[in-house]
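To start, one record:
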Amino acid sequence: MIRQKIVDTIIEKLKTISAANGFYSEAGANVFEWLEKPLGKDEYPAIVVRDPADNTTDDYTITNHVLKIEVDIAVSGKNTPWNMREVTSDVIKAFSLVEEELNYQCKCNGSEFITEQKETTYGGVRVEFDVMYQSRRWEQ
């Protein structure tokens, strides 16, 4: 399945996010696919990947796909806004590695930031991407 290969590659590249690999953050230590539970205190910063939609056009021989990818970033601590920007930059950089490895066009559609003050400051970012690819008809 092409779609699963794309998601697996995205997760693999996001897991390489570390200072040792030339990134700003260590967010690659906590990368999840479709996480459905609250994060533990030791799981920040975290990255959650989802593939909620695949828009297609079909010309009766080839199917063109635009796979929507949502990447949610969760950070906490005293430098939350700064950390949100760092991890966002790292995620965008990691997607360049995805594009390079798969040879599928990836497009960043922007991001949204939000913070919340509780016992500490929590921050969340959603970065949205499209991955464009083709498949034979009736394949995903």
Summary: The longest helix spans residues 80-102. The longest strand covers residues 121-136.
